[in-house]
Amino acid sequence: MTEPARAGSNPTWLDARAVRDGDDYVITGHKWFTSAADGAAFAIVMAVTDPTAPPHQRASQIIVPTDTPGYTLVRNIKVMGDAGEGYPTHAEVRFEACRVPVQFRIGEEGAGFALAQERLGPGRIHHCMRWIGICERALDLTCRHAATRELSPGVLLGSKQSVQHMIADSRAEIDAARLLVLDTARQIGERGAKAARTSVSTIKFFTAGVLQRVLDRAIQVHGALGMTDDTPLAYWFRHERAARIYDGADEVHKSVVARHILRGYGAHVSNDGA
Ligand SMILES: Cc1cc2nc3c(=O)[nH]c(=O)nc-3n(C[C@H](O)[C@H](O)[C@H](O)COP(=O)(O)OP(=O)(O)OC[C@H]3O[C@@H](n4cnc5c(N)ncnc54)[C@H](O)[C@@H]3O)c2cc1C
After folding, report:
1. What is the pTM of this model?
2. Is residue 119 located within the same domain as residue 99?
3. 3: CB partners within 8 A, 6+ apart
4. 53 and 138 housed in the same domain
5. Model confidence over 200-212: pLDDT tens digits?
């Protein structure tokens, strides 16, 4: 979906085009941050199939086998210094007159945005669950370190009030995130992802923020050790900073939540503040 030349936060505004030619689509586009592209047998591209349709019905999702002529994986983008390889990669890719059969379209023509929303709700709660798992491990490492590291003979790091407060703050924030995520999962189970949209936005930005703070405290308590790759903390800190950006930046989700609240006060404000 995401393109370097257009704001990824606005998925209705895409440059990539899929033009119908007989029983084929001819796809032209430039994408980046295509996760797991390296080694993939196919890509799913979101491209405009009808530029005259209403914004949310302009694009379709189309499968493009990666051996299709015109498809190029330009590079695995270095994210926080690490390009990776295979599944945990984020690639820049080009589609230059890629021709695929119309049957490779997923769902109806123009349903690309609706399909993306369908996937992103459950995808976001999955990220939150994964982040809570990382938080629990980071807090566990923090506590182990605080309970064993001596600042001077017989004086444990964990005896310092500032360290104790960091542990307590992390515990409280993780518990709060976990309860919000569980409640959102209940809502999805009972009413479906669409009805739980505002709660999904709440947990997306809230849990991503908790993750950043818990990891930051964990590194602080570990001192220089926290900056090394002798623990997983630095890896998480580098790789999970993106949590506040992908699948909707914090600001976008906060606006979804606030607009929903303001509707209860009779104010119907749109995304651009109109
Ligand atoms: C590690 C990683 C993996 C990714 N994987 C994928 C993938 O597999 N497929 C894919 O399609 N994309 C993927 N993305 C891209 C991701 O979805 C986009 O980065 C995201 O949607 C933001 O778009 P952008 O980067 O173009 O930022 P922009 O849209 O240019 O926004 C820049 C910043 O502006 C602010 N902003 C934007 N909109 C608003 C608003 N309405 N109100 C207030 N502030 C706002 C936010 O702070 C935002 O971070 C990935 C990104 C990362 C970092």
Report:
1. 0.94
2. no
3. 14, 15, 16, 29, 30, 31, 32
4. no
5. 999 999 999 999 9
